[in-house]
């Protein structure tokens, strides 16, 4: 298995990112992670079944609706929802997933590995890695 640093570099090499749990509320981490990608000059899309757009970025109702260039997914969702999102990745172009702190569970990580996805979990935070400026 690759070390955490290499898994993060591989994750960040994706052409576009999905943000499961994207929020219209700027105080929530689902909004901060989306803005973090944008601040870093990355292409990102939100996943939120109740919003068409967040922070000027198009949103999609579910993982299966994301554009095909999205190959990496950040999860900012409760663990039970994270498991559902991971299961929905089957048959999509998603290859790497990053469980933001609090979004992971052993079951969701195991499901990601069973699908052949490369998960990042256990405390690493995208906001810290990319230097989010709130």
Could you characterize the architecture of this molecule?
32% of the residues lie in helices and 21% in strands. The protein is α/β, with parallel strands linked by helices. It has one domain: Rossmann fold (3-Layer(aba) Sandwich). It has a 7-stranded mixed β-sheet with strand order 3-4-2-1-5-6-7, with helices on both faces. Strand 6, helix 4 and strand 7 form a beta-alpha-beta unit. It starts with a helix and ends in a 5-residue tail after the last helix.
CATH architecture verdict? 3-Layer(aba) Sandwich
Give the C-alpha Rg: 13 Å
Residue runs with pLDDT of under 50 for 5 or more positions? none
The side-by-side strand order for the widest beta sheet comes to 3-4-2-1-5-6-7
Count of helix runs: 5
Order of helices and strands: HEHEEEEHEHEH
Q: Which fold does the CATH topology refer to?
A: Rossmann fold
The CATH class turns out to be: Alpha Beta
Average pLDDT rating = 96
Q: What's the overall geometry?
A: globular
Instruction: Quickly count the domains.
Output: 1
Class from helix and strand fractions: alpha/beta
Beta-strand percentage range: 15-25%
Largest sheet: 7 strands, mixed
Which range best describes the helical content: under 10%, 10-25%, 25-40%, 40-55%, 55-70% or over 70%? 25-40%
Going by CATH, the homologous superfamily would be: NAD(P)-binding Rossmann-like Domain
Number of strands: 7
């Amino acid at each position: 298995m690759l070390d955490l640093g290499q898994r993060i570099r591989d994750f960040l090499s994706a052409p576009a990112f999905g943000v499961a749990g994207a929020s219209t509320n700027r105080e929530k981490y689902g909004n901060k992670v989306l803005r973090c990608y944008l601040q870093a000059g990355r292409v990102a899309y939100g996943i939120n079944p109740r919003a068409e757009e967040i922070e000027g970025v198009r949103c999609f109702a579910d993982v299966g609706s994301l554009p095909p260039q999205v190959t990496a997914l950040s999860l900012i969702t409760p663990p039970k929802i994270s498991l559902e999102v991971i299961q929905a990745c089957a048959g999509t172009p998603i290859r790497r997933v990053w469980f933001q702190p609090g979004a992971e569970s052993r079951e969701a990580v195991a499901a990601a590995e069973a699908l052949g996805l490369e998960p990042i979990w256990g405390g690493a935070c995208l906001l810290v890695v990319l230097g989010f400026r709130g």
